[in-house]
């Protein structure tokens, strides 16, 4: 944990905080320069997805209020909804106490998952079996314009 996040442990609501730039300098990015970002529907609390952000994606998200992630498979910024139209508008962003995980409160347009489901978390598991908890809202082929 960085010294800055250790210092924040004893900081109160009314205390003066460091600048956003200083906080982002102190974030604990992984070896690839990424931080996990959990997207949660702001009004219902539903956990929608987890993706990765680098500093550039996080700064763009904060600047534009439109959520932007870093696509590890494509090796570039991924603006949520750029191909599906299913955007996320940022309502708030918070770092955890260690500065190594981000929680995004968002307003999700339609499904958040590439499978066409509202949430990426739809495979429930128990000690003996697994089951699907939701059906797609939109056929993924339709969502990504792959219909002929």
From TrEMBL:
Location(s), subcellular: Cytoplasm
Keyword Amino-acid biosynthesis carried by entry: yes
Domain Phosphoribosyl-AMP cyclohydrolase intervals: 49-122
Highest taxon of source: Bacteria
Cross-referenced InterPro entries: PRA-CH, PRib_AMP_CycHydrolase_dom, PRib_AMP_CycHydrolase_sf
Keywords: Amino-acid biosynthesis, Cytoplasm, Histidine biosynthesis, Hydrolase, Magnesium, Metal-binding, Zinc
Cofactors that this protein relies on: Mg(2+); Zn(2+)
GO molecular function: phosphoribosyl-AMP cyclohydrolase activity
Family the entry assigns: Belongs to the PRA-CH family.
Name of the protein: Phosphoribosyl-AMP cyclohydrolase
């Amino acid at each position: 944990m960085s010294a800055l996040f250790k210092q924040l442990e004893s900081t109160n609501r009314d205390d003066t905080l460091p600048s956003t730039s200083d906080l982002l300098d102190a974030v604990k990015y992984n070896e690839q320069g990424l931080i996990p970002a959990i997207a949660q529907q702001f009004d219902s609390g539903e956990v929608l997805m987890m993706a990765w952000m680098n500093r550039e994606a996080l700064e763009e998200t904060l600047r534009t209020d439109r959520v932007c992630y870093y696509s590890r498979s494509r090796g570039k910024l991924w603006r949520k909804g750029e191909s599906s139209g299913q955007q996320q508008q940022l309502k708030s962003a918070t770092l955890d106490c260690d500065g190594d995980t981000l929680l995004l409160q968002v307003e999700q347009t339609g499904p958040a998952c590439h499978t066409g489901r509202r949430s990426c978390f739809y495979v429930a598991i128990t000690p003996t079996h697994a089951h699907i908890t939701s059906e797609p809202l939109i056929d993924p082929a339709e969502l990504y314009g792959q219909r002929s």
